[in-house]
């Protein structure tokens, strides 16, 4: 027999004295119910994507009862789940959300609905499924065991967790079955849930309902900031519950006393709406008294009715078969000032033993397991029988457990305070130890936050060295668990609690050999979560102390890496690099200072000379290094790379990657080897002078991550380094696009939003370079720009400049000179100014706006040559610059030396394209033929020029490069015009216009038709 069934039997076994059954019906909320139901209907029918409904009012006003009534009325196929915050469990991250979804999953399994959701969950969660299983273990009953969670950076972990949770919710929030989540008592919401709330609102077919106490959510409450942000982007509805009117109390009293409504009807002639009994108009009716005494608070009314019954002021007359009362007696009775005082008065009548059992139950939680209560407090369940009888404690809806709950949080609050602080600490300690002893090791993480919160309350009673150490290790485990769920603020509290416990052992002892590892882990993780939760002042005080306590350079290096990440987060990149270079020196690694340009150049030359490209394939066979020293060296180098990249220092980024590669060849590969190879390959063509070697480096990095599927978190860096750079020199551009799309997909799954933004705009430009139809490019562009605008304003501006020539090609109206932006806009950042110059060059070539470029070419060439160091953009801009230099009609008064300089630059680009064409004909051969054709033309060899253009046409058709096919026709037409072959010229130019149109370049087609007066095609 279950414990709560036993309690029921005990209650039923007592005398059958009639009980006053307070009505549980909903009164006076018709308008609110209708309003909420209408919103639910709009979401259910698809007329509203999602909605946030807030229900606020004072304690006991009926917020929960209103939602329960809504839940009973909501019959649409969907899911209505409920979670409730506990005032004494505020530090348990996502507690009510987890509670609600655990019950939902159990329902899914119980109702044999696994197949309905299994495929959808697997599809949406993909490689991140284990993240949700760690949060909601019951999920494994639906999707089965999953691969371990991939390690990513803390910043990526936050984004990944939010996206994964959102995907999880989306699996249940479908058009055919919307999801309604009701979270009660949100005034006690934890910070982790708050940070997740806005992300959840992005789900469709979702309604979130939040109930909170008006008087506890005041202007500084963090909930209000979140609600304000949500209101700006989503549909919201606010319901404020007022006290019950006198009319509502008529029905409540009538239903509770099972009397005819006429005996408690309101006399509307009374000035204060007092209730009069029709047959005794001189007496106040019970309803009028309740109205005055309780201010219309439903909970207070129910409690007062029950209290009056217990004191026989309301009594049942078995002869007349009705309830009776004396209004005078009730009027004269002193009524407590509020619900709390009334509950206290009742509980103080219990025996001390019963009070202790009641307080123990309250220490367990607002919902408590009776079997756990019996472990901590023998006979506890039986001692609570009177309170079950009176309704202060009720059986939960989950009949499969022995759970019970307090009627209201006010009841819970009073019960919690029945014993003093010292006694409560003893109870909490016993609860924690009982849970720890009775929970299987495999299930410990599921309730570790609950256990730790009990231990935290019992801090003063944990005294022996063994108790302090074992509890500190448990705190470390709880902190890591919270950290994995990105609940950084809460995890910092657990780590700090563990440190406080170790400190009580003694400063000298805690850093001794036996305790060093646990103490260091507590401090190191505390530093990380403090900076991630932006508690910078606190963590800055810890760094010097922790570094001083480290007993080896490797541990010091881990501290320095975290410290450098903090400065990178604050965009203080110079300090970040300074910290990590100092760390490398302590590890015995020579690395120049950031301002030592000569030292960086010399060190890079030294490392590139040591680099043996022939050994790259051997890296695939190398074992992974497990040496902490080797790993932290490469981690530190990658940390420097990240900050140096933000500083725009390509020499230092190249040095970091080259050192990682050489270090891997000497000591074995690790998580940083693949990214090191790929990211170095991006600049290696210029650094080593061999684009073939650059391709081999990038390919080795890409093969390395393909060999190890568990290295998924490295894919974004590898993909952007390889596909945006050297892959072009060994494989068709279409493969680069596919590689980038893989990187983008993985970035989103891993929560690496920065790299997702980098890859997103590269995909647009490389789809253009690959000859993809411009309709498809435009669709990708629209999606990309929306994504960038939301997630990376800096890259959004960069991408706007980058794709401007492409937009000009598909826009029917060709760009006018008046719309040109200045080549040297001083308001732009260096990177934005650079990409603006790139866009101007490409647009100048396609639309023959070459004069301005020629005039300022000396000024722009230096920057373009220094910064555009790899990939399709450098190849494209080199081609356009060479074609402008060769194709420009130089005036007679043009400076001869400047002209010769321009033509010499074109020769250098032709030489470069000759090398590139040998490495990958599919990407460069037709461009080389166009360059050679222009070179032959200006040399006076029109026949050879014609042959080169025809070869270019053939090659571009072969490789399905529509834009270069159109360009070949265009140059053949222009050549024919110069030779006065008008008929041939018109033929070629018309072919060019048709080809451009077929490609989707209406802007270019219209410009060509207007310039050469071509007939409409």
From TrEMBL:
Residues 25-202 form the Orc1-like AAA ATPase domain. InterPro entries: AAA_16, Hybrid_Histidine_Kinase, P-loop_NTPase. Pfam families: AAA_16. It comes from the Eukaryota. SUPFAM superfamilies: P-loop containing nucleoside triphosphate hydrolases. This is Orc1-like AAA ATPase domain-containing protein. It comes from Acrasis kona.
């Amino acid at each position: 027999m279950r414990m709560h069934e036993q309690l029921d039997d005990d209650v039923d076994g007592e005398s059958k004295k009639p009980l006053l059954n307070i009505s549980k019906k909903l009164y006076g909320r018709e308008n609110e119910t209708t309003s909420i139901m209408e919103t639910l209907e709009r979401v259910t029918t698809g007329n509203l994507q999602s909605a946030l409904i807030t229900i606020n009012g004072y304690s006991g006003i009926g917020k929960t009862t209103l939602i329960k009534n809504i839940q009973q009325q909501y019959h649409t196929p969907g899911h209505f789940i409920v979670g409730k915050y506990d005032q004494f469990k505020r530090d348990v991250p996502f507690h009510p959300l987890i509670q609600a979804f655990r019950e939902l999953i159990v329902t899914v399994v119980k109702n044999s609905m696994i197949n309905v959701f299994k495929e959808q969950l697997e599809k949406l969660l993909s490689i991140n499924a284990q993240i949700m299983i760690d949060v909601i273990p019951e999920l494994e009953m639906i999707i089965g065991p999953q691969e371990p969670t991939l390690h990513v950076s803390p910043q990526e972990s936050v984004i990944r967790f939010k996206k994964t949770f959102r995907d999880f919710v989306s699996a249940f929030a479908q058009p055919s079955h919307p999801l309604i989540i009701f979270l009660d008592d949100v005034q006690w919401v934890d910070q982790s849930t708050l940070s997740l709330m806005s992300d959840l609102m992005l789900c469709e077919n979702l309604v979130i309902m939040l109930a909170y106490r008006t008087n506890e959510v005041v202007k500084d409450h963090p909930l209000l900031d979140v609600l304000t942000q949500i209101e700006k982007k989503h549909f919201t509805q606010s319901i404020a519950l007022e006290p019950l009117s006198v009319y509502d109390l008529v029905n409540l009293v009538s239903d509770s006393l099972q009397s005819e409504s006429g005996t408690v009807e309101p006399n509307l002639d009374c000035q204060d709406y007092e209730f009069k009994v029709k047959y005794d108009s001189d007496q106040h009716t019970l309803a009028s008294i309740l109205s005055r005494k309780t201010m219309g608070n439903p909970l207070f009314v129910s409690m007062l009715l029950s209290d009056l019954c217990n004191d026989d002021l309301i009594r049942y007359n078995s002869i007349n078969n009705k309830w009776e009362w004396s209004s005078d007696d009730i009027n004269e009775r002193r009524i407590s000032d509020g619900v709390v005082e009334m509950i206290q008065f009742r509980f103080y009548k219990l025996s001390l033993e019963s009070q202790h059992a009641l307080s123990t139950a309250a220490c367990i939680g607002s919902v408590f397991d009776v079997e756990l209560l019996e472990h901590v407090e023998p006979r506890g369940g039986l001692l609570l029988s009177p309170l079950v009888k009176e309704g202060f404690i009720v059986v939960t809806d989950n009949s499969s457990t022995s759970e019970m709950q307090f009627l209201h949080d006010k009841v819970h609050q009073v019960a919690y305070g029945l014993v003093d602080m010292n006694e409560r600490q003893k109870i909490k300690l016993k609860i924690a130890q009982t849970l720890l002893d009775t929970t299987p090791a495999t299930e410990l993480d599921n309730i570790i936050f609950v256990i730790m919160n009990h231990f935290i309350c019992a801090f003063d009673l944990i005294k022996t060295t063994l108790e302090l150490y074992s509890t500190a290790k448990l705190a470390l485990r709880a902190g890591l668990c919270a950290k994995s769920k990105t609940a950084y603020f809460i995890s910092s509290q657990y780590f700090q609690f563990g440190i406080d416990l170790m400190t009580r052992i003694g400063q000298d002892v805690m850093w001794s050999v036996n305790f060093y590892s646990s103490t260091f882990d507590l401090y190191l993780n505390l530093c990380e979560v403090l900076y991630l939760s932006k508690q910078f002042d606190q963590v800055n005080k810890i760094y010097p102390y922790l570094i001083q306590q480290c007993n080896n350079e490797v541990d010091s290096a881990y501290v320095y890496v975290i410290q450098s990440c903090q400065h990178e987060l604050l965009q203080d990149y110079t300090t970040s690099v300074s910290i990590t270079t100092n760390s490398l020196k302590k590890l015995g690694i020579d690395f120049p200072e950031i301002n030592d340009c000569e030292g960086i150049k010399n060190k890079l030359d030294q490392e590139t000379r040591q680099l043996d490209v022939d050994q790259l394939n051997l890296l695939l066979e190398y074992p992974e290094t497990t040496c902490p020293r080797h790993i932290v060296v490469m981690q530190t180098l990658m940390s420097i790379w990240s900050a140096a990249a933000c500083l725009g220092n390509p020499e230092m980024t190249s040095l970091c990657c080259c050192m990682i590669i050489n270090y891997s060849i000497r000591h074995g590969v690790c998580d940083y080897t693949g990214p090191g190879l790929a990211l170095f390959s991006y600049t290696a063509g210029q650094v080593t002078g061999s684009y073939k070697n650059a391709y081999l480096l990038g390919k080795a990095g890409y093969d390395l991550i393909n060999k190890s599927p568990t290295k998924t978190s490295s894919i974004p860096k590898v993909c952007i380094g390889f596909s945006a750079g050297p892959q072009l020199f060994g494989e068709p551009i279409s493969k680069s696009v596919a590689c980038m799309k893989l990187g983008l997909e993985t970035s989103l799954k891993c929560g690496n939003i920065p790299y997702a933004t980098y890859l997103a705009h590269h995909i647009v430009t490389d789809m253009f370079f690959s000859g993809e139809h411009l309709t498809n490019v435009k669709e990708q562009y629209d999606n990309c720009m929306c994504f960038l605008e939301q997630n990376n304003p800096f890259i959004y501006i960069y991408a706007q400049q980058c794709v401007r020539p492409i937009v000009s090609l598909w826009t029917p109206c060709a760009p006018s000179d008046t719309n040109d932006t200045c080549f040297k806009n001083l308001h732009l950042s260096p990177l934005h100014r650079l990409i603006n110059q790139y866009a101007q060059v490409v647009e100048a070539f396609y639309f023959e706006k070459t004069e301005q470029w020629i005039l300022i070419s000396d000024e722009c060439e230096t920057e373009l040559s220094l910064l555009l160091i790899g990939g399709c953009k450098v190849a494209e801009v080199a081609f356009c610059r060479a074609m402008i230099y060769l194709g420009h009609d130089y005036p007679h008064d043009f400076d001869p030396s400047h002209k010769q300089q321009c033509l010499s630059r074109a020769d250098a680009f032709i030489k470069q394209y000759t090398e590139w064409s040998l490495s990958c004909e599919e990407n460069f051969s037709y461009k080389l033929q166009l360059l050679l054709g222009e070179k032959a033309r200006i040399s006076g060899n029109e026949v050879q020029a014609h042959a080169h253009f025809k070869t270019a046409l053939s090659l571009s058709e072969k490789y399905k490069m529509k834009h270069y096919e159109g360009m070949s026709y265009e140059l053949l037409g222009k050549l024919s015009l110069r030779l006065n072959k008008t008929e041939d010229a018109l033929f070629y130019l018309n072919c060019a216009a048709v080809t451009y149109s077929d490609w989707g370049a209406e802007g270019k087609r219209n410009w060509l038709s207007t310039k050469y007066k071509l007939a409409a095609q």
